[in-house]
Structures are given as C-alpha cells and as structure tokens.
C-alpha cells in the first residue's frame, strides 16, 4: 500500500476508535506541542535563520511566542470550549434537553506556506487538537530547513497514531488532496487556494482558506509623518515584507508623500543602518524565483528609497517606490517583499474608491489623528481585518478572529475561533420517552384540532 494511504487509514482508524475525543488526550497532545516548542527553540530559530535569515527576535515573537500563546490559551480554556452549549426552547420542548455539541470533524488536513512556517502550521494545529481531530500536517517544502524539523522532530512529541507530518511540494500535495478529508485548512496563495477548494469540492469537504492579496494603507494629511513612517516601515519590512498582512501600498496626498519620504528614509536607516545588507535584523528573500519576481517589481514607477539588490545573497533593499501606475505589476500583484509603493490620491473619497475598486483585502490600515476619518474608512470599506493607526497589531489579539473575506479567504481562526473552526456544531435535542399524551395533537388524521399546535 502507498505509505500516505497507509498513514491516512491508520489515522482514520484511530479517530473512529474515539482516541482523540477525551479531554485528557487533547490536553496531553497540547502539552506535547508545548514541550516541542520549549525543547527545540534553538533548533527552530536556526532553521528559520537558514530559510529566511530571520533574526532571533522575529522568530521568537512571530513564530514561537505566538504558537506557545495559543497552546497555553487552549489548555486554560479547553474544558469551557468543549462544554455543551444550552439553547433556548419552545413550548413543545420545554421538558427536553436542547444543546449544541462541539464535535470533532474527524481527519483534518492542514497545509502551510513558507513565510511563517512554524506559526502557520502550529497555530491551526492547536485548534484541530483542541477540537479532538486527527491531523495530517503538510508544511511548505520551500522553507526546507524548517520543514525538516517539523517532519523529523515534531512527531516525537505527538501521538503518532493520530498525527502525521507529510512532506512534499505541489505534486505530493496534489496526491494528498485526492483523498477524502473531513476538513481542510489551507494557508497560501489565492491561486493554490482555488486548487485546494476544487479538490475539496469533489468530496464535499469544508475548507478554511487563509489567502493573501494587497493590503491598502491610507495616510491622512493630519498625521505626524515620522510616527506613520516608523509604524508602516516596521510592518512592511518585518520578515523582509514576506507577510500576508503587511501594508502593501500607501495611499496619501502628494503633500503627505513629500513629508513621508524623508521620514521613511529615517525609519529605514534607524532600523537597518546605512547598509541594510549587513544588518542582522533584515531577512532575505526565500528563494531565487521570488527574488527574480521582486527584482522585476523594482522597475515599476521610480525608486525613491533603496532599490538595490544582490542576487548572490537574495538581498533586496528596503525600497520605496513613487509615481507607480495602477496598471504596473507592482500595483496588480501581491508584493510579498520589502517594496512599498506610494500612490497619491486627492481626497479620502478617492482613496476609498481606489480600495473598493479592488478585491477585498486581508487587512486594511488607516492612519489619521482624527478618529472620525479612521472610522469612516472602516465604515465604507471591507477587509478581513482592520487596524487604525498601526500595522498588523490586530492579529496579535487571540480574542479577534483572523481570516479573509472575498478573494482574501474563507473562514477564521486564532484562540477560540480556531476551536470553533475545527468543530462541527451538532444540534442536539434529547426528548423524554414519556408524556406521549402531549404529542397526540401533532398526529394525523389531521383535523382543526391539529391547528391548535
Ligand atoms: P502557495 O500557495 O504557493 O503554497 C502554500 C502551500 O500549498 C505549500 O504547502 C505548497 O506546498 C502547497 N502547494 C503549492 N502549489 C500547490 C499545488 N499546485 N497543488 C497543491 N498544493 C500546492 O503559497 P506560499 O508561496 O507558500 O505562501 C505565500 C502566499 O501565502 C501569499 O499569497 C500570502 O499572502 C499567503 N499567506 C496567507 C496567510 C494568511 O494567513 N492569510 C499567511 C501567510 C501567507
């Protein structure tokens, strides 16, 4: 038998035997995940440094601490999350028990991308374990050093009859997707998201799709340019811009653009020094293919800051572009790198119209000293998430759902939302076998008497 088929059969048998259902089992696995993160902190940091030149700080805050926080939250709340939820009743069911049971789906597939390869694999896994599922994990083959740790080390911390890590690229994932899963959780590009959803449709498997896109960032004239520049540059160049929720482009007036440019230059120099290539705090582009793609984007508009690149090092300087045309590739595709175009607009209305003419983004940012302006952008647009006066801070709150809308995705997770995503909400009514007299009124032969029901 094909080894993947064998793994899936084994996991399904374990699920059908009820192995993952008890709360104690789920707690054990979550504790295993916690030990994996603690024991292998350095190993993970080294792998992330090899794959993405990620600094220890960025690995710590955006991969390890976030994953650990989700495990801790699930451990603290598991009993409460698992509890049946009582619901209100009507007259006919007054004596019965009506509740929602949070039931695991069964065998779940989680597919992750390469940009936050630990976080985007383990955070969904926490929800899937907490909800009582068996799980197949498919890390990205592109962040290959991290993939190796996830394939070789992670399974030692989990019950291998219920959890498996399957390595591979598009071809292997395509094969995996031919099998029937009970839920598929995918994080990656909209293009592959469609492939996943098409494969899932063949089995009527429900999906969560966490996708990407272009996240607009509106900057009002009344802002302090240096504050905006610090915040935008930090979130644009974090992980070398390879972040699904990074501000993708700025919309501002020509006057604000003139004030922002020196402020952005000052923020970049402050963060990465005069020679960002030698900074330990700036990462590298994941591979040659993405490097070439980004190098091509440097030719759009006019380079106002940065613009240098070094193929041998997969280095692209933190860059700001101006005078870009809407029709140029940098304004057509998700940038996913350290390049920030500034697009000028004459008014707030024009900015909102620019945003609404495009696909709904994963995140939207608005900077203004006037809270009315921020609220107006919020009220007149749509996006997966929104943050006023900062970058992707909204996604650091596990109390907020994280996910896209429209082209940026389907579904949500983080914290309790993850548990709910991986749980089927089963509608349950337990009736009494007695009191049959009361039911007489509903039975045929019908007569005006039935209408009293
Ligand atoms: P990708 O879609 O190329 O790959 C994601 C996963 O799908 C990988 O595990 C890969 O092996 C697999 N895959 C690739 N091609 C496939 C195919 N033809 N058939 C089946 N499986 C295939 O995405 P990526 O390049 O790894 O990541 C970048 C994208 O992910 C960006 O668009 C980014 O915005 C998005 N992203 C979204 C989020 C989010 O939370 N919404 C987070 C991170 C990244």
From TrEMBL:
It comes from the Eukaryota. GO terms for molecular function: 3-chloroallyl aldehyde dehydrogenase activity; aldehyde dehydrogenase (NAD+) activity. GO terms for cellular component: cytoplasm. The keyword DNA-binding does not apply. SUPFAM superfamilies: ALDH-like. Keywords: NAD, Oxidoreductase. It holds the Pfam family Aldedh. GO terms for biological process: aldehyde metabolic process. The keyword NAD applies. PANTHER family: ALDEHYDE DEHYDROGENASE, ALDEHYDE DEHYDROGENASE FAMILY 3 MEMBER B1. Belongs to the aldehyde dehydrogenase family. This is Aldehyde dehydrogenase. The gene is Aldh3b1.
């Amino acid at each position: 038998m094909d080894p993947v088929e064998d793994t899936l059969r084994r996991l399904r048998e374990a699920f059908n035997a009820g192995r993952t259902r008890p709360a104690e089992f789920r707690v054990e696995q979550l504790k295993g995940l916690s030990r994996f993160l603690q024991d292998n902190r350095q190993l993970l940091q080294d792998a992330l440094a090899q794959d993405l030149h990620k600094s220890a700080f960025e690995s710590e805050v955006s991969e390890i601490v976030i994953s650990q926080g989700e495990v801790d939250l699930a451990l603290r709340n598991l009993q409460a999350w698992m509890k049946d939820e009582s619901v209100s009743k009507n007259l006919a069911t007054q004596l019965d028990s009506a509740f929602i049971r949070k039931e695991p789906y069964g065998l779940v597939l989680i597919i992750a991308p390469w940009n936050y390869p630990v976080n985007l694999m383990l955070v969904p896994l926490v929800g899937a374990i907490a909800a009582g599922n068996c799980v197949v994990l498919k890390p990205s083959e592109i962040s290959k050093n991290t993939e190796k740790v996830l394939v070789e080390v992670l399974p030692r911390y989990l019950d291998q009859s219920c959890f498996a890590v399957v390595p591979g690229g598009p071809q292997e994932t395509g094969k995996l997707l031919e099998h029937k899963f009970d839920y598929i959780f995918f994080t990656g590009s909209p293009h592959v998201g469609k492939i996943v959803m098409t494969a899932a449709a063949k089995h009527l498997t429900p999906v969560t799709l966490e996708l990407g896109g272009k996240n607009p960032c509106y900057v009002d004239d009344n802002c302090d340019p240096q504050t905006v520049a610090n915040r935008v540059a930090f979130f644009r160049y974090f992980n070398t811009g390879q972040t699904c929720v990074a501000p993708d482009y700025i919309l501002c007036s020509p006057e604000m653009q003139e004030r922002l440019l020196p402020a952005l230059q000052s923020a970049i120099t402050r963060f990465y020094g005069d020679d960002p290539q030698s900074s330990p705090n700036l990462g590298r582009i994941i591979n040659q293919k993405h490097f070439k793609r980004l190098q091509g984007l440097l030719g759009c508009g006019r380079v106002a800051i940065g613009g240098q690149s070094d193929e041998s090092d997969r280095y692209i300087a933190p860059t700001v572009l101006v005078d870009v045309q809407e029709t140029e590739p940098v304004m057509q595709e998700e940038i996913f790198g350290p390049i920030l175009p500034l697009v000028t607009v004459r008014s707030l209305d024009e900015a909102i119209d620019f945003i609404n003419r495009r696909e709904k983004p994963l995140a939207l940012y608005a900077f203004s000293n006037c809270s009315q302006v921020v609220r107006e952008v919020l009220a007149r647009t749509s996006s997966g998430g929104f943050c006023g006066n900062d970058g992707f801070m909204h996604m650091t709150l596990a109390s907020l759902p994280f996910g896209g809308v429209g082209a940026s995705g389907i579904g949500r997770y983080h914290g309790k939302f993850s548990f709910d995503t991986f749980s089927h909400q089963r509608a349950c009514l337990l009736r009494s076998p007695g009191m049959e007299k009361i039911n007489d009124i509903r039975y045929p032969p019908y007569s005006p008497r039935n209408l009293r029901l």
